[in-house]
Amino acid sequence: MIISAVAAATVAAAASAAGYQTMAPTGQWYGRTFCGLPQSSEQLALTYDDGPNDPHTLKLLDVLAKHNVKATFFLIGRYVRMRPDIVRELVQAGHVVGNHTQNHPLLIFQPAERVRRELEECQAAISETIGSPAMLFRPPFGGRRPAVMRIVGEMAMKAVMWNITGYDWNAKSADDIENMVSRRVRGGNVILLHDGGHLKMGADRSRTVEATERLIKKFHAQGYSFVTVQQMLDQQRAAN
Fold this sequence. Notes:
Shape: globular
CATH class: Alpha Beta
Number of domains: 1
Radius of gyration: 18 Å
């Protein structure tokens, strides 16, 4: 009985750990993802999910341009189809765009055919809008499993997660977002924020826009620079 109880507890713990790894931002069990540079780096990467979004992606563009900061935007394909003009503005301004699926499903519960279709439809929307496919991919909700990571690799994309989130999708104020990010910055961080919402176009991200400007000012003053995820990946590749 004791052995059976221990075995059951071990199986339960393993199942719990496996489940955690499907959503854990820095988990690597199911395939390598990029989560940032070593803490010794004085660089930070601002990333935004769920756009393009009218009007807040455009407001973010103004803030980023004001401070000469480049960021990385993970786009939902159906929104790209709705507002290709915003996507073109992002690229023309020097920002990097990535694939965030066509409809933002939680991929760990989707069959492989659906996963591939979600990624391919988003790639098609991006390619037709800017003339080239996305090289980066971020899974909705951070959810992935081996089949997801295999398809990402077959499509020649790099999976990107994060190691800091501002929890801005439900933050009560820009202060909350700023504090949530600031207290965890150690250098080399990939910061998750949102310029849109996966449920509908027009999600209110005014607090994120305000927090972004505060974060840029604060960390510029501390000697940090802001780069795109692609720039971080290029540095990592050059160092290896």
